[in-house]
Amino acid sequence: MKLSIAAVLVFAACTIQATAEDFDPQSEMFIGNLTKNVIFVRLHPQGTLFNGYPKSLDDDTTRYDFRKTIEGIVPRRYSPIDISHIIGLDGIGISFPNASFGFFQLPVFNGIGSEWNNYLLLTNDQSGVVTVDGTFSYGKYVLEIFDSSYSFIVSIPIDNSDFDYPYPHDGVPPNSRMCNDLYIYINNINTSPPGITYRWSACYQVPGSPGDTLSLFDPVTTNGEIHFFKQFYSYRNPILKLQNRGKSFAARDSGLLDFPIRSNNINLFGQFGNEIHLNPGDLNGNLTVRSSQHINIKSGETFRVTNLCTLTVNPRVNQPDPLTKINVESGAKLIIAESSTLSLKSYANVVVLQGGRTVLEQNSNVYFHERGEIIVKSGGSLINCGANFTNNNYACILVESGGYYGTGEECNSSVVHTVDSGAFIVVDG
Predict the structure, then answer these.
(1) What pLDDT, in 10s, does the model give residues 155-197?
(2) 172-121-263 Cα angle (round to 5)
(3) Could you tell me which residues are beta bridge partners of residue 335?
(4) DSSP-derived secondary structure letter, 212
(5) Which residues pair with 138 in a beta bridge?
């Protein structure tokens, strides 16, 4: 009996896909409800998000900015207010249709009318004029599923932080093409784990194939998580590519220079915000601070360079120009995680202000260029748990009277600080 039920579910999922193909709204993520009851969902960001198109010939192509960059409008299905941000389901998206308490309602598939009315439709930042419910871009998101009584069922992490997306097909052998579209089918929420399947589309398909719908909670493959750069299929070998963490820049707008940017910042995004934003300061891609910009890690916030990413602070262009600077404010924390990198270009500074804290985790990397400096003000703290100082002959740490440099509670082992090849640390300077 279990095999028969599974077969029916796979057949139903594939039937919906095949029936709806002629009415494809050109979305990239499709989430469908194949249960017997209405369910509710939310989709919110996790960590940093980046807009833009990294394959453009323009070097300044992706930015740490939550606004859509594609030309033209992106209409909504259930509201006259167009979509303008890349934060998943924003405050307007979770108000329609017929939902309450900030949820998006997924109806039961009944075979009546347009098949796409039974899906949550999401498009990416590179898509043009389509009618959808929300937008995503480069970064991580979390899909939350609730039953008809708004009781929580499960969270599904969705990682689209590969800057090679959308994946090319021109010149790529058909059986090596990665897919650009994702279907998620919610089949049964009364089991543990829930009966949820997925399939990749918009890529090479085997003619006459019975489908490639797979269990999301297969412990050998996805194990309840979606990564766009790790794709599994039933009809061919998986494609597990190396993640491209890209090259993005801080935005030019002064309102977006206080890190981390939060999707629930009502002053920035208002009704276009998302009330939930997990770990907003976790860096999910390489980020460059533009020449002469001043970035502030805000009081009470943490900005963490992780996932093997690099935070680069660019040099000033001309000598009279202001220095490029990251200020770590009182009560704020800047963390360079293990295997991640802080790169200080010439005359670029990280300034740890009174009450601020910068932590260099064990086996993190700090790349100093000429006159690149970390400056610890009185009352500030620079915690070194065993960072690797690359290009040591330029390494420069200045600790003013009342500032602190050394190990701290964040360090979990004994630490050796090596300073050679012309590098220097000035304490009480």
Answers:
(1) 999 999 999 999 998 888 888 889 999 999 999 999 999 999 9
(2) 100
(3) 304, 359
(4) -
(5) 50
DSSP designation for 57: S
The β-bridge partners of 145 are: 41, 154
Q: Please classify residue 404 by burial: count the beta carbons closer than 10 Å to its beta carbon, then call 0-12 exposed, 13-18 middle and 19+ buried.
A: middle
Dihedral pair phi/psi, residue 95, rounded to 5°: -105, -10
Nearest 5 degrees, angle CA 265-CA 266-CA 268?
70
CA dihedral sign, ordered 30, 34, 40, 42: negative
CA atoms 218, 220, 223, 226: torsion sign:
negative
For tokens 């981390």, the residue is 260
Residue type, 129: V
**In this predicted model, what pLDDT tens digit does every residue of 78-97 receive, in sequence order?**
888 888 899 999 988 888 66
Residue 207 confidence class, pLDDT cut points 50, 70, 90: low
What 3-state DSSP class applies to 93?
helix
Residue written as tokens 């360090």? Answer: 411
The token pair at 415 is 């630490």
Cα 31 to chain centroid distance, Å, stands at 19
Give the number of C-alpha atoms closer than 13 A to the C-alpha of residue 189, restricted to the C-beta side. 25
Sign for the CA dihedral angle at 135, 138, 139, 144 comes to positive
361 contacts 336 by C-beta, under 8 angstroms: yes
pTM: 0.90
Q: What span, in angstroms and rounded, lies between the C-alpha atoms of 161 and 319?
A: 36
The contacts of residue 112 (CB under 8 Å, 6+ apart) are none
Q: Are 120 and 106 in contact (CB under 8 A)?
A: yes
The 3-state secondary structure of 154-211, one letter per residue? EEEEEEECCCCCCCCCCCCCHHHCCCCEEEEEEEECCCCCCEEEEEEECCCCCCCCCC
DSSP letter string over 317-357? SSTTSPPEEEEE-TT-EEEE-TT-EEEE-TTEEEEE-TT-E
Which residues neighbour 414 within 8 Å (Cβ) at sequence distance 6 or greater? none
Torsion sign over Cα 149, 155, 158, 159: positive
328's CB contacts (< 8 A; 6+ apart) are 297, 334, 350, 351, 352, 353, 356, 357, 358, 380
Here the tokens at position 288 are 């460059």
- What backbone torsions phi and psi does residue 53 show, to the nearest 5 degrees? -135, 100
